[in-house]
Each structure stands twice: as structure tokens, then as C-alpha cells.
Sequence to fold (298 residues):
Amino acid sequence: MGPPRVIPAPLQRGSRVRVIAPSSPFDRTLVLRGIGWLGQRYRVEFDWSMFERTGFLAGSDARRLDELNRALSDPTLGAIIAARGGYGLTRIAHLADYAALLRHPKWIVGFSDITALHVEALSVGVASLHGPNAAGLGRSDDWTRGRFLSAVEAPTAARHFRGLQTLSPGVVSGVLAGGNLSLLFTCQATGRLHLPPGAILVIEDVTEASYRIDRMLSALVASGALDRVAGVVVGDFSDCPDGPHRVPWRSVLSEHLCALGVPVVTGLRFGHDRWNEFVPLGVRAELDAGAGHLALSP
Fold:
């Protein structure tokens, strides 16, 4: 059955939120703009050490792990918001204290490399939020900011995503799980990926050639990671080339996902494109693939 689901409390005006940098260095201006916007509504905190750089990382493994653990264990924090994704979280994610997250549930917000944290949160039964990070909130995009407020301040409200394209019809319900395909593949390789039975899998990726997408999906299928998935929702696969043999990534996804024998849709606007929907993971949803409709009913 897996652990019970815990949905963190909604954010309110004045809630404490913390911005952390557990992965790559980032655009300082965009993140500070995002912090400034968040600060108009919440009590925003961060450590200046997050601006450190160690090669392709936002500081040493020790710095980033300490920052993450302090945020996870903070009993009055309402949300942890990633500065950006990039690379590096899988070097430390398995070492963090997620029992502290279960004791003090809070929203983890981010995407791309932050999928590793979503995987860990789901493993202890705490819902999290796949969507733009602080740098994304710093782009002065009212569409993104409005969706952020709806997602964190009314997390149990019903939400509907319509107009999705059908690859395989059917109606199923289950807990949303997933994120970036490359990170899910990596988490499975390290033994950290544990999808709930009957989960509705949501996936996206960026700059992965079609043969690499094929490799990752083949490995996930062969490992048994997708055996108990009830349905699949495909987001954006941005700037993914056809590769040397000109095999479109869409045909690779269709071949593997339809072979699962579950309802499958594409076209959810989440991932690395301009319009990146906030998708709560660890909450219940119903997928009517024939109608192209995903309904969230936390």
C-alpha cells in the first residue's frame, strides 16, 4: 500500500519559505527577482552561501546537504523552493533526512533536477509540487506566478487539465508521481525510485535524443519500475532531437508507453518550455485519456 499520503498545509500571507540551491549554480539576477516577488507575500529566507560555486555545483556537497537538511527539519517552514535545477542533487539526495520532512511536512517546489527530491518526498508519503523554481518566478511572468499562488495556497482545490491528446484510451484514478524522465531513470538505477501501486506517471524531459529516451524507457520497463503504473501523462519533451537515425521522440514514447496497456495522454504543459504548469505529486487524480482530461481531486 505504501506510506499514507500527507498534503502539507497551504501557504498563507506571512508564511515562512526558504529558497535553497541543492543543484547547479544559477542566474543570480533571476533568483533575486524571484525572492523579491515571493517576499511581497511571504517571509522569505535564504543563506548567502547558496551563491557559492564549486565547478558545476552550487557549492560543495557538504554545503548543499547541510542547507537541505536544515530546511527539511525546520518545524515552522511552509515551503522549500529550489533556486533552480540543473545537476548535482543526486550526489546528496539519498543522504538527506526525510523522516524530518514527515515530522514537519512542507512543500518542496521545483522541477528538473529537483525530481530527485520529489521522489524522496513521495517515498515517505509527503506531497510535493513539480513546477517552476525561484529563477522561473523571477521572470516577471504573471501566468506562472498566478499558478504558483493557486497551487501553494489552495493545494486541495479541484484542478482540471483539458485538451490533452489521446495515445491510449481508458479511465483510471491514482496518485500522481514522476517528473523529469532522466532523473527518474537515475533514481531507479540507484534504487531510490518507488512508484506507488496504481500511480499515474507524469514525465517530461529536455535535450535528450530519441535513442536516449528509448534507452531510459527500456530500462525502466525492464527493471519493473513501471509494472504497476495505472496511466501515463506526457508533458513537454523540449529540444529533443531525432538522433542519427531520425527516429522521432514521439514515436519512441508512443511505442513504449502504449505497450504498457494503460491509458496514455500527451500535451500537458509542464516541463522545460515557457508554460510550465505546477503539478502536485503525491495527490490523487483521475485520468480520462479518451476525453483528454486529467482531474486533480486531493
